[in-house]
Amino acid sequence: MANKQLREEATCSICLEYFTDPVSVECGHAFCLSCITRYWEGLETDFPCPQCRETSKNKILRPIRQLGNIVELLKQLQTPSADPQGENLCREHEEKLKLFCEDDQVTICVICREAKEHRQHRVRPIPEAAQGYKKSIHDHMERLKKELKDLQTWTAEESGTAEEFEEIFKNQTKKILNTFELLQQFLEKEKKQLLSKLEEEHDEKMKKIWEKLNKLEKLQSTHQDLITTMAGKCQQQDVELLKDVQIILSRCDQMKAEKPQEDAVVQQTLQSRKHASLLDKLLELKATIPVELEGIYMNTCATEVTLDPDTGNRNLVLCEDGRSVRNGDRAQDLPDTPQRFDPTVTVLERERLNSQRHQSEAYSQYIGAWILGLYD
């Protein structure tokens, strides 16, 4: 009872905590300096006492250093005392702390056990309670260690996915640049649009991958910190170990490491679109290619160029006059000559053309045949 009264006398009536920098007002009541300052904030006269409501004309605050010293001593007395043998003692009864109250999660003495507040509670001897919690801590540590290994494995898998996706991005970019270098006269605008679309897709997928990687790294760090905390807890004496042990175990129960869900779009890109993405994109551009390009090719082949049937791809059907070509429905059964293009859907002219005009027409024919094969 005396201890309770002492604590009440050392408590500020505004914040209901121990005094901090205690001061007295004109009526004699004491408050924390910060509390009374905030209470009087905005007042210029008639300063009321928060406790007795008596007002004073002037804002007079007198420091009470002795009260501040008493509060500091009282705070020190709140920690458990120890007997000459180093045993922790009950703060209220000065008896050895031998029991642990499961309901209140506090250590108590035998006298506390018979008190009203603990009489109906589950109570165990401290060593027994400490041993039980120690086993629980070890079990949680093993689970966390296993989950940490799983997290490391998942992180490695996600890193591999990122590297694979990065490699696919580089390869597709290279193919796109090479393709549009041949068609830059006709497809400069389309090339920029395709690269932009591919880059947006890459950024979107990589963003999801890195979000999962960051989440995994944070989970690893959290698991590692908790393992370290629990390992240190096991090194403490029984009484210290039991302090806040339930909080630590609750944190363990709340932490569940789960492997991130596979992103269906990313996996589709990695598997089914690994080699087909470029062709699909170019097929979409078919409608934007100028009609004049195929016209140039057809007119050139029909009027100026004689095609070499020994070089034509099996999917290209040459006319009898050798001056025009079309894309067939299926591969033809043709002789296997060293000059024949396979798998490139291409055919060469029969004779060597030396004039600049014929070279330009041959180039147009080559591009036209390439495009026909591209849209097969």
Q: What is the CA-CA span between the terminal residues?
A: 96 Å
In round numbers, the mean pLDDT is 77
The secondary structure category is mainly alpha
Radius of gyration: 42 Å
Per DSSP, the total helix count is 12
Number of strands: 12
Q: What characterizes the major β-sheet?
A: 3 strands, antiparallel
Shape: elongated
What can you see in these coordinates?
With 376 residues, the chain is mainly alpha-helical. Helices cover 54% and strands 8% of the residues. The chain is built from 12 helices and 12 strands. The protein has a 3-stranded antiparallel sheet with strand order 2-1-5. It has a 3-stranded antiparallel sheet with strand order 9-8-10. Strands 3-4 form a two-stranded antiparallel ribbon. β3 (47-48) and β4 form a beta hairpin. It is elongated and about 120 Å long. The chain starts with a helix and ends with a helix. Mean pLDDT is 77; it is low at 82-86, 299-303, 352-364 and 372-376.
Topology of this structure?
Elements: H1 2-9, E1 22-24, E2 30-32, H2 33-39, E3 47-48, E4 55-56, E5 62-63, H3 65-77, E6 81-82, E7 88-89, E8 99-101, E9 106-108, H4 110-114, E10 123-125, H5 126-182, H6 184-234, H7 238-242, H8 245-254, H9 264-270, H10 277-284, H11 291-303, E11 316-318, E12 325-327, H12 356-374
Antiparallel strand pairs: 1-2, 1-5, 3-4, 6-7, 8-9, 8-10, 11-12
